[in-house]
Write a structure and sequence with these properties.
The structure holds 2 protein chains of 2 kinds. By secondary structure, chain A is of the alpha/beta class. Chain A has 13 helices and 17 strands. Chain B contains 15 helices and 4 strands. Classes of the chains: A alpha/beta, B mainly alpha.
């Protein structure tokens, strides 16, 4: 009896092991490298979700080159050395032909040498400061001239003449503001109309423009008082690159001081719909945002994407996934577009090999009509796409005010505006 | 005066050294990649990183387990060593950076047209290597001198070390410091003229890390067997009695604290070229708390326990972040709780219990009453093993 049941158990076990190997198609393993724990998890988990959704969608419609996508999800844990370690593991141990991942610039900088050494392929889908062009990274999100300078253009159109620059003290705000300083000067804005302060080196070169606060800063009384004085003439605005939680006390203080969005609009470059899930929007109503995608975008592609994504969320078999109160935002949609751009390039190249896929991506013929409109991958590893300016509403959504058609990305901007 | 290392321990150390320093590199370099005994470059690199962290854990145990000084900022010294050596590596990039300039990229971007003066000596490898030791050492000496002279002890000392590393973290975040701000240093290319990411260089760095770990262990283990070690433990168990016996306890503590900082600096300098990045997040207090956890899990007051703890916890993390990405913090958290509840002397204590205390012949065991009752959870409890005593003063 015992032996019999053992044999039947073994038979079942062997069957169970064999059947899937018959049933399974060819698979291609791809890496997903985001922080699922730690301080960045709140933003990056949404990108993991949308990537898994994109893989499922592609697998349902036949996969890539007849291969099913099998994601290897790793947790970078908001720990930058761990990002490098995990990138190494994905490329050297699992030999994935492509990785989708990273949010912060420092995590990208941390994995960059790993991708270059192993000739890997990384799709990076978060707006960033530019000044970087790795042969192994494709940047599918907004370059500075696809977010910050269009926002300034819009404010100039609105008749704003004074610009106050405010941000968290790290590389993205510092770089963006230095570029904006040059851009504003090239547009004929006198330097005294640029607020926040300038820091110069011993030779008088400006090395930092704008006002900076540390991460997690909460006391904005003095800064808002300064802005109020700056905005007394009625034609000022604020370019805000503060990251995360610090925005709450800033906007609270801003509203408490009596400043309104009509008097002095604040355009925030790091606040999207996803952030509004955890931030109170009351004090932000009427202020502006600039992104390559808004959830409120009224196109058939976006409508379909939202419907399918929310439907997928209800049943997705992902541990710990949040199913309620979900939104879509620019980094999510650009991650989603990354997957389709990669798929198109693989199909054009007829291979998963990194060199061939890169050549296909650089050909300028890889496009994807996504929820945000048309994305075209250019030779400079960035995508041409639409840019939108929106006004924050009380429900955390944006009312789209202005659309810039198919803006050509330019990663190296510093020093280019003043020469012209 | 001093006790000698037990023969068993010497024998064991020799075997371990042979495996770590000779066998593993040979299995990595001389065995074909499809052989079952082949050790991949990835694994060698990972082990090298673990050993650097293990060095920090050993130095921390020397402070916490043997001197009763719970430093909650040990990763600060590690980071300073890493930064000092990283400065040299940044300069060795030469013109291969994004901007093809002699200056590091982040300086070009911030508009520097000349290297800040304090960067210039770091062109020298040996200056940078020495700075990785004396900069953390000097900071620890100054901080320790002020703290121990003022008889700052126990939980107050721990809080101050935590504040110190947090302050340094905020300082290094600032771009004005010309140390790369939030991004820190990365994308290194060469070390001593060799390409830094080549398997040969990484193997050499691994051997250096393994050797440093073994030498660190030997040095600190030998120290704990001398008269110094006896005074050290006396300070841990009852500092006032040591003072009344005429010993300048502050000097002993200062020496231990400075030595541990120098050793952590060395670990940082070895770690940075292997992991490829150093930035201020290494100075966040949570990183130093992690180091305390390695010591607690491995077994405080044993010196070898923390090595097991550091390598084990980090290996578990490496495995879990890819195999159980959504659950690994829960897994690690439960492990710590289990260890604290059921193996209060850590893995080492458990091993010694199993081994019938073969290795403990000459090893001082922590007095029973103080073993883990008040310091198993560093965040919430008093770290001072002589808690009662110091409250009277």
């Amino acid at each position: 009896m015992k032996i019999k049941s053992l044999i039947s158990f073994l038979a079942i076990a062997i069957f169970a092991a064999i059947i899937p190997s018959f049933a399974a198609d060819k698979v291609v393993k791809v890496g997903v490298l985001h922080s699922l724990s730690g301080t960045m998890a709140i933003s990056e988990t949404s990108l993991r979700d949308v990537l898994l959704f994109a893989f499922d969608e592609i697998n349902k419609s036949g996969g890539v080159l007849g291969h099913k996508i099998e994601p290897i999800v790793v947790d970078g844990a908001s720990n930058w050395p761990l990002f490098a370690e995990k990138a190494k593991e994905l490329l050297e141990v699992h030999k994935v032909p492509v990785v989708f991942g990273c949010w912060t610039s420092v995590s990208r900088k941390s994995v960059l040498p790993v991708f270059e050494k192993n000739n890997g392929l990384l799709f990076y889908a978060v707006q960033y400061e530019g000044e970087e062009l790795s042969p192994n990274i494709f940047y599918t999100a907004e370059a500075v001239n696809q977010q910050a300078t269009p926002a300034v253009d819009y404010l100039l159109e609105m008749g704003r003449k004074k610009f106050y620059l405010l941000g968290s003290d790290y590389v993205y705000p510092q770089t963006t503001n230095l570029i904006l300083l040059e851009y504003l000067l090239s547009k004929g804005i006198p330097i005294e109309n640029i607020g926040g302060g300038l820091r110069k080196d011993s030779k008088g070169n400006v090395i930092s423009a704008g006002k900076y606060v540390p991460f997690g800063h909460t006391d904005f009384q003095q800064i808002v008082a300064e802005i109020k004085q700056f905005a007394a003439s009625g034609d000022a605005c604020v370019i805000n690159t503060i990251n995360g939680d610090s925005n709450v006390p800033f906007f609270k203080e801003f509203a408490a001081s009596g400043l309104t969005a009509e008097e002095c609009p604040v355009v925030s470059l790091s606040l999207s719909e996803d952030e509004f899930r955890s931030l109170p929007t009351k004090d932000l109503v009427g202020h502006l945002g600039a992104w390559a995608y808004f959830m409120s975008l009224d196109t058939p592609e976006n409508k379909k994407f939202k419907e399918n994504f929310f439907e997928w969320l209800k049943t997705a078999n992902v541990p710990g996934i949040e199913r309620q109160n979900r939104v879509t935002c620019s980094p999510m949609v650009l991650s989603y577009s990354s997957v389709y751009l990669w798929k198109a390039a693989v199909e054009k190249a007829g291979s998963f090999e990194v060199d061939k896929v890169r050549a296909a991506l650089e050909s300028g013929e890889i496009t994807f009509l996504g929820p945000n409109g048309l994305n075209t991958m250019l030779k400079n590893h960035h995508t041409k796409k639409n840019v939108y300016i929106g006004e924050t509403k009380a429900d955390g959504q944006f009312k789209i005010l202005r659309q810039f058609e198919q803006v050509v990305p330019e990663p190296f901007l510093k020093g280019t505006f003043l020469k012209k | 005066m001093s006790d000698r290392l037990p023969k068993v321990e010497i024998f064991f150390l020799l075997i371990l050294s042979a495996v770590l320093i000779f066998v593993i590199p040979i299995l990595n370099s001389a065995v074909p990649t499809d052989h079952p005994f082949y050790i991949s470059n990835y694994l060698v690199n990972l082990l090298g990183q673990y050993f650097c962290l293990a060095i920090v854990a050993v130095s921390l145990d020397f402070l916490w387990g043997y001197t009763g000084l719970l430093s909650l900022g040990q990763m600060l010294f590690f980071s300073l060593g890493g930064y000092a050596f990283g400065m040299h590596l940044m300069l060795m990039i030469g013109r291969l950076g994004q901007y093809k300039s002699d200056l590091p990229d982040f300086m070009v971007f911030l508009g520097y047209n000349k290297l800040p003066d304090f960067w210039v000596p770091f062109y020298s490898f040996w200056f940078a290597a020495a700075a990785a030791l004396w900069v953390p050492g000097l900071l620890a000496f100054l901080f320790g001198w002020l703290a121990f002279r003022s008889r700052i002890r126990g939980v107050y000392f721990s809080i101050l070390t935590q504040a110190l590393t947090y302050a340094a973290c905020l300082l290094f975040f600032r771009n004005e410091l010309s140390m790369g701000g939030n991004n820190g240093f990365t994308d290194f290319k060469f070390i001593l003229g060799k390409p830094i990411n080549s398997p040969d260089t990484q193997r050499a760095l691994y051997v250096a890390s393994a050797l440093s770990l073994i030498l660190t262990y030997l040095l600190l283990r030998t120290l704990t067997l001398t008269k110094f070690g006896k005074v050290q433990r006396a300070i841990r168990d009852s500092e006032n009695r040591v003072l009344f016996s005429g010993y300048a306890a502050a000097n002993y503590k200062l020496f231990a604290f400075t030595l541990a900082a120098v050793i952590s600096g060395l670990a940082g300098a070895l770690y940075v070229p292997q992991v490829g990045i150093i930035n201020p997040s290494q100075m966040e207090p949570s990183r130093s708390l992690e180091a305390v956890v390695w010591v607690a899990v491995g077994g405080r007051g044993t010196l070898y326990g923390p090595v097991i703890g550091a390598v084990g916890v980090n290996a578990l993390r490496s495995w879990a972040t890819i195999s159980l990405p959504a659950y690994w913090p829960i897994l690690l958290g439960s492990l710590f709780i289990l260890v604290v509840l059921f193996a209060p002397r850590g893995i080492a204590g458990f091993l010694e219990f199993l081994a019938g205390k073969v290795l403990t012949a000459s090893r001082p065991i922590l007095p029973n009453t103080q073993i883990f009752t008040n310091s198993s959870l560093p965040k919430t409890s008093s770290p001072n093993p002589s808690g009662q005593e110091s409250q009277k003063t």
